[in-house]
């Protein structure tokens, strides 16, 4: 008794092949799926290359920008903020955290647009609500 070749479909169910052309078509379908996935990945990498984030202190005076690696690239501290004394460190940290969160949300949105599933939802859940709200408020003002 000879066994028929079989394969698994994307849903995990077993598929029977009765002719070599069916096997070839099945393999070509896998190849095409892989080509599309690679294309999405290349598109993601291309768009991520220059992605930055911008954030502000709660009073809006201190501005931070993070680069494509999430590292602080710019920090604008006006004289009025310098006079805030002991609050200045917290203002700077708030601006940096917001900038990093803004970049993370942009990355997740891009990933979701390219078919990365629940990425955006998971990133949104990981960012503290008050930071996420501040990022979204700044986005709305700059649209």
Could you explain how this protein is built, in words?
The chain has 143 residues and is an alpha+beta fold. It contains five helices and five strands, in the order ββαβββαααα. It has a three-stranded antiparallel beta sheet. It is elongated.
Order of helices and strands: EEHEEEHHHH
**Portion of residues within helices:** 55-70%
Note the main sheet. 3 strands, antiparallel
> Based on DSSP secondary structure assignment, what is the total number of beta strands?
5
User: What structural class results from the helix and strand content?
Assistant: alpha+beta
Uncertain residue segments: none
Q: What value does the average pLDDT take?
A: 84
How far apart lie the N and C ends?
Answer: 69 Å
Strand content: 5-15%
What is the subunit arrangement here? single chain
Strand order of the largest sheet: 3-4-5
Gross geometry: elongated
Computed Rg = 24 Å
Number of contiguous helices: 5
């Amino acid at each position: 008794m000879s066994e028929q070749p079989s394969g698994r479909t994307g849903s995990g169910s077993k598929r029977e092949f009765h002719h070599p052309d069916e096997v070839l078509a099945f393999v070509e379908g896998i190849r095409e799926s892989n080509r599309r996935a690679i294309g999405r990945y290349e598109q993601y990498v291309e768009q991520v290359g220059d992605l930055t984030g911008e954030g502000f202190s709660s009073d809006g005076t201190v501005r931070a920008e993070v680069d494509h690696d999430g590292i602080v690239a710019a920090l604008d501290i006006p004289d009025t903020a310098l006079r805030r004394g002991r609050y200045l460190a917290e203002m700077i940290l708030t601006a940096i955290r917001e900038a990093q969160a803004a970049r993370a949300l942009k990355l997740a949105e891009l990933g979701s647009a390219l078919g990365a599933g629940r990425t955006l939802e998971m990133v949104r859940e990981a960012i503290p609500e008050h930071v996420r709200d501040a990022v979204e408020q700044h986005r709305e003002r700059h649209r």
